[in-house]
Each structure stands twice: as C-alpha cells, then as structure tokens.
Amino acid sequence: MIIAIDGPAGSGKSTIAREVATRFGFSKLDTGAMYRSVALSALQRGISLEDASATAQLARDIRITFGTENHGNVSVFVDGIDVSDAIRTPEVDRNVSAAAANPGVRAAMLDPQRRFAEGHDVVAEGRDIGTVVFPEAELKVFLTADPRERARRRVMQRHEGSEVDASVIEAEIEQTLADIERRDALDSKRETAPLTCADDAVRIDSTSHTIDEIVSMIEHLIAERR
Ligand code: C5P
C-alpha cells in the first residue's frame, strides 16, 4: 500500500508521516530530503542553481540514500556522508525551491523515489507525491494548516525544552512566516510538478487538530481502503 502525504511547508507532513509509518510498520519516504540534498550538494560544490544543466547533472551524479529507521527518524546520506543536519539549515531552506523547480532535477529524483516503494508499504511525503510520483497511491492526503500556525509550530519545535523570551518567539514567527510563504509561492507556481492537491486526495486542515487526531483520521482512511 502507498500513502501519499502532500502539502505546504510546515503543515506537519513529516510528523504525521513518521507517526503513521511507526504505527502501521510502513517505510517512510521523505522526498523533501532528496531535493534538500541536491541543493546542499550544489551549494557545497559552488554550482549555481541558476545553471539548470549543471544542477541536473549533479542530481544524476550524487547518490542519495536513507539510513535505518530510529524511532521514526531516518538519516540521509549523500555519497555515503550523513547530511541529516546539513540539509535543514536556513541556507538550504532558502535555496531548495530553486533546485526543486528544475525539471532535470525532478526527473533524476523520480526513479529512485519509485524504486523505494517496490515491494513494500510506504508512506511518502512531499509536494507532488499524489499527483506525479505515485498517482496510483491507495490513499492521498493533502495536509494544510493556517500559515501563521505553521510558522508558530516550527518556531516552538526549534525551541522545545528551552526558555525563550516571548518577544524573540514573536519575531521568529514573523520571519518564519515570511520564509514559509515565499517557499510555498515558489513551489506552487513552478511549471513542473507544482504543489497542488490531487483531485482524489483527502484534504485535512490541521490548524485546530492535534497530531493524534490527524493520525486517527488517517487510520480510518487506511482501514476503509484495505
Ligand atoms: O518537505 P520539505 O520542506 O523538506 O521540502 C523542501 C523543498 O523540497 C520544498 O520546499 C520543495 O521545494 C521541494 N520538494 C518538492 N517536491 C517534493 C518534496 C519537496 O519540490 N515532493
């Protein structure tokens, strides 16, 4: 069975995909990590993301692999080097949409993404899973949330367990909101495989729901389709 979870930045796709994968014993495929790996590799090698053919060649050349699951967290490797933290920096956040808008990069990612699902149950998260990567997925979820709430969750996640001044939190929420909206606009407006809700996807707005509530909704949807 394939479950596709698409949606904008910070809508909770990773958390929900991780919970669903753990609960049902599915493998989790984080396709965003793959585009992040391409952007990171280009930045590290001084390849301009505006150079479409060089970036596409890079995407074909590097080998992106995933480590074994550890409590639902999966490490990401580029040519054997662990990049799990390096792909989550603000610099990669700012550059990843340019890499992902490149049709040559997307073409290079498609095959490994589809191969990942061969022979086992997968929950895959991204922007074009239900529309392009796995249009035949048995369950498609389009996860959204109010942009300010998405920004707030991101910031609270970043400071989990530490005491931070409310004014600092507010300023970070404003900055994160601007970043999220910029990335969503780039991802939605690109020509190849834009972020969009598949016709047959179930839309879930997570703004006023807990993670457990959403996982329960997905649990029911899975049961209906089995
Ligand atoms: O999901 P995450 O925020 O890590 O994705 C990072 C970026 O990768 C997105 O903003 C988007 O530009 C790109 N992406 C994509 N298609 C996917 C997954 C991610 O274009 N299926």
Automatic annotation (TrEMBL):
Keyword vocabulary terms for this entry: ATP-binding, Cytoplasm, Kinase, Nucleotide-binding, Transferase
Swiss-Prot/TrEMBL catalytic activity: CMP + ATP = CDP + ADP; dCMP + ATP = dCDP + ADP
Compartments reported by the entry: Cytoplasm
A Pfam family per the record: Cytidylate_kin
GO cellular component term of the entry, any: cytosol
Entry-linked SUPFAM superfamilies: P-loop containing nucleoside triphosphate hydrolases
Assigned EC number: 2.7.4.25
Residues annotated as signal peptide: none
InterPro entries, per database record: Cytidylate_kin, Cytidylate_kinase_dom, P-loop_NTPase
Top-tier EC class: transferase
Keyword Kinase: yes
Record GO terms (molecular function): ATP binding; CMP kinase activity; dCMP kinase activity
Binding-site positions, ATP: 7-15
Domain of life: Bacteria
GO biological process, one term: pyrimidine nucleotide metabolic process
Ranges where the Cytidylate kinase domain occurs: 3-222
PANTHER family noted in UniProt: CYTIDYLATE KINASE, CYTIDYLATE KINASE/PANTOATE-BETA-ALANINE LIGASE
Family stated for the protein in its record: Belongs to the cytidylate kinase family. Type 1 subfamily.
Matching NCBIfam families: cmk (TIGR00017)
Record protein name field: Cytidylate kinase
Organism: Collinsella intestinalis
Designated gene of the protein: cmk
